[in-house]
C-alpha cells in the first residue's frame, strides 16, 4: 500500500509540473498570434527543424549534397523552442498567404520526451478548460465545438472577432491517452484570402519590414 501511495504521489507531482510549463508556452503562442507580435522565446532553447539532403549533380565536378529544411503540406519551416529538459516544445508554423504568412503556434510533447501519461493528460485538459473559462468570462473569446475521433478529447475556443491581421483565431487542445498524443495550438484559420501578415519570427519579420521600406 505504501509503495502504491508513493507511486501515485509521484504521478500527481509530474502531472502538476507539466501544467505550468504548458501554460507558459501556450500563453506565448496566444500573445503572438492574437496580438500580431513576434514570438517571445526569452528563456527558451531553440533547436533546428528537420533537414533533408538532396544530391545535386554538377558535372564534371563531384556531386554535392544540399541540405534544406523539411517542409510539408506547404508549411514554411517551423521554428522550434522549448525548456531545456522540459516536457513540451513550441513549433511555430507559417503558411504562405496573400498578405504574407498565416501562423499556427503549437505546443507538443518534446521530441526527446516520453509520451504523456493519463495523469498528465487529465491535468492538462483540466488546465485548458480553466483557461477557456477565464477567456470566455473576459468576453474576447467564444466557445467552439470541435469534432474528435473515438477515444480522443478535443476542446477549444475561438476569438470573438478577427485579429488585426484579419484572421479568425482558434485555440484548441487535443489529447488521445491511448497513444499519448497531445497537441495544443493557437491558429489563424485558413479560408479568408485577406488573412495574413508579417512573420511572427523576429528575424524574418525584420527582413519583411526592410523589404517594404
TrEMBL record:
Protein name: Uncharacterized protein
Superkingdom to which the source organism belongs: Bacteria
Lineage of source species: Bacteria, Pseudomonadati, Pseudomonadota, Alphaproteobacteria, Rhodobacterales
Amino acid at each position: 500500500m505504501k509503495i502504491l501511495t508513493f507511486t501515485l504521489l509521484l504521478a500527481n507531482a509530474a502531472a502538476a509540473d507539466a501544467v505550468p510549463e504548458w501554460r507558459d508556452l501556450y500563453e506565448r503562442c496566444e500573445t503572438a498570434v492574437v496580438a500580431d507580435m513576434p514570438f517571445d522565446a526569452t528563456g527558451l532553447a531553440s533547436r533546428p527543424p528537420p533537414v533533408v539532403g538532396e544530391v545535386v549533380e554538377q558535372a564534371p565536378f563531384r556531386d554535392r549534397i544540399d541540405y534544406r529544411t523539411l517542409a510539408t503540406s506547404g508549411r514554411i519551416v517551423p521554428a522550434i523552442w522549448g525548456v531545456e529538459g522540459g516536457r513540451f516544445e513550441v513549433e511555430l508554423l507559417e503558411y504562405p498567404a496573400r498578405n504574407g504568412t498565416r501562423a499556427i503556434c503549437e505546443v507538443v510533447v518534446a521530441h526527446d520526451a516520453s509520451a504523456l501519461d493519463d495523469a498528465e493528460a487529465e491535468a492538462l485538459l483540466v488546465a485548458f478548460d480553466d483557461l477557456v473559462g477565464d477567456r470566455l468570462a473576459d468576453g474576447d473569446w467564444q466557445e467552439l465545438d470541435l469534432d474528435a475521433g473515438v477515444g480522443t478529447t478535443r476542446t477549444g475556443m475561438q476569438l470573438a472577432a478577427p485579429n488585426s491581421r484579419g484572421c479568425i483565431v482558434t485555440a484548441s487542445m487535443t489529447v488521445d491517452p491511448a497513444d499519448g498524443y497531445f497537441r495544443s495550438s493557437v491558429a489563424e484559420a485558413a479560408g479568408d484570402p485577406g488573412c495574413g501578415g508579417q512573420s511572427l519570427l523576429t528575424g524574418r519579420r525584420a527582413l519583411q519590414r526592410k523589404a517594404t521600406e
